[in-house]
């Protein structure tokens, strides 16, 4: 029986019912056909249809009958939601249908083409990389350049004797270049509006041996400096504003009478 089932085709298997003992010889055999399993052809058809519908490919041009049916459905408002134009484009097409094909193209272009508006930037943030320095030492340089014009801050770092001044100077030059090229800020008005220092992750401690079987743990601090560049007053404008403020504080003497006799004079020579 098993050997016979191995030779049955994939479509179906045939099982023969043998006659029982003592039965008559003229009783015919009964042949049973049953489905062994579902064919994969049904799933292959669905897989082929799914791949054909959703695989990106070059869209074939519709024939005349399909295009006419789509046009008629659009006029009756029965088109597919994915093919339906937006409300603005539809209104432009309906308004241009009465003016002609040339006006229709112009109206559609006016709706679809929007004027390019570049983004206006007013500040630029930049920072140094994380390096080995105490945040207290680096914060001194941050206070030195805070509120200064960018060129003056670079000049301060150029003549500073601190070891981290060269790194801060290079960072300021790069920040100025990026602010001018990428965000169209005026280099003559750039100032260091803010400067702050952030701590970084500390490296694992290093054992420092000492005398008499003692030891200590040495940890090196890491930090980085961040600056915020903005457009502000130039150095000349600040000097002019300071001069104006000082002149405003000057109070002239009022008009006084000079013929008033001196009353209660102080002590003086008596001869």
UniProtKB/TrEMBL annotation:
The record's Gene3D superfamilies line, in alphabetical order, gives: Ribosomal protein L22/L17
Name the Pfam families on file: Ribosomal_L22
* PANTHER family, alphabetized: CHLOROPLAST 50S RIBOSOMAL PROTEIN L22-RELATED, LARGE RIBOSOMAL SUBUNIT PROTEIN UL22M
The alphabetized UniProt keywords are: Ribonucleoprotein, Ribosomal protein
Q: Which region ranges are annotated with the description Disordered?
A: 1-22
Comp. bias (Low complexity): 9-22
Q: Which domain of life is it from?
A: Eukaryota
Q: Does the keyword RNA-binding apply?
A: no
Gene Ontology biological process terms from the UniProt entry: translation
A Gene Ontology molecular function term for this protein is:
structural constituent of ribosome
Organism from which the protein derives: Schizophyllum amplum
Keyword Cell wall biogenesis/degradation on this protein? no
Which residue spans traverse the membrane?
none
Q: What is the lineage of its organism?
A: Eukaryota, Fungi, Dikarya, Basidiomycota, Agaricomycotina
- What this protein is called in its record is Ribosomal protein L22/L17
Q: Where is the signal peptide?
A: none
Listed under GO cellular component are: mitochondrial large ribosomal subunit
């Amino acid at each position: 029986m098993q050997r016979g089932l191995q030779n049955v085709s994939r479509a179906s298997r045939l099982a023969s019912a043998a006659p029982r003992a003592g039965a008559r010889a003229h009783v015919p055999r009964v042949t049973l056909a049953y489905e062994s399993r579902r064919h994969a052809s049904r799933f292959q058809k669905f897989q082929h249809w799914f791949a054909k519908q959703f695989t990106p490919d070059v869209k074939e041009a519709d024939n005349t009958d399909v295009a006419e049916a789509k046009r008629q459905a659009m006029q009756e408002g029965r088109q597919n939601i994915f093919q339906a134009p937006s409300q603005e484009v539809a209104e432009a097409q309906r308004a241009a249908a009465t003016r002609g094909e040339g006006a229709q193209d112009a109206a559609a272009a006016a709706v679809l083409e929007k004027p390019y508006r570049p983004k206006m930037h007013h500040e630029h943030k930049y920072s140094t990389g994380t390096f080995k320095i105490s945040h207290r030492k680096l914060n001194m340089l941050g206070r030195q350049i805070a509120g200064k014009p960018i060129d003056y801050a670079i000049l301060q770092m150029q003549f500073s004797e601190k070891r981290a001044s060269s790194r801060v100077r290079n960072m300021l030059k790069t920040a100025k270049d990026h602010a001018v090229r990428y965000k169209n800020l005026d280099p003559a008005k750039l100032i260091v509006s803010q400067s702050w220092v952030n701590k970084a992750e500390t490296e694992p401690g290093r054992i420092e041996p000492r005398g008499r079987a003692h030891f200590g743990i040495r940890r090196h601090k890491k930090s980085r400096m961040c600056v915020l560049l903005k457009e502000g007053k130039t150095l000349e404008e600040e000097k002019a504003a300071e001069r104006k403020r000082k002149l405003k504080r000057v109070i002239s003497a009022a008009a006084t009478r000079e013929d008033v006799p001196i009353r209660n004079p102080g002590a003086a020579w008596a001869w």
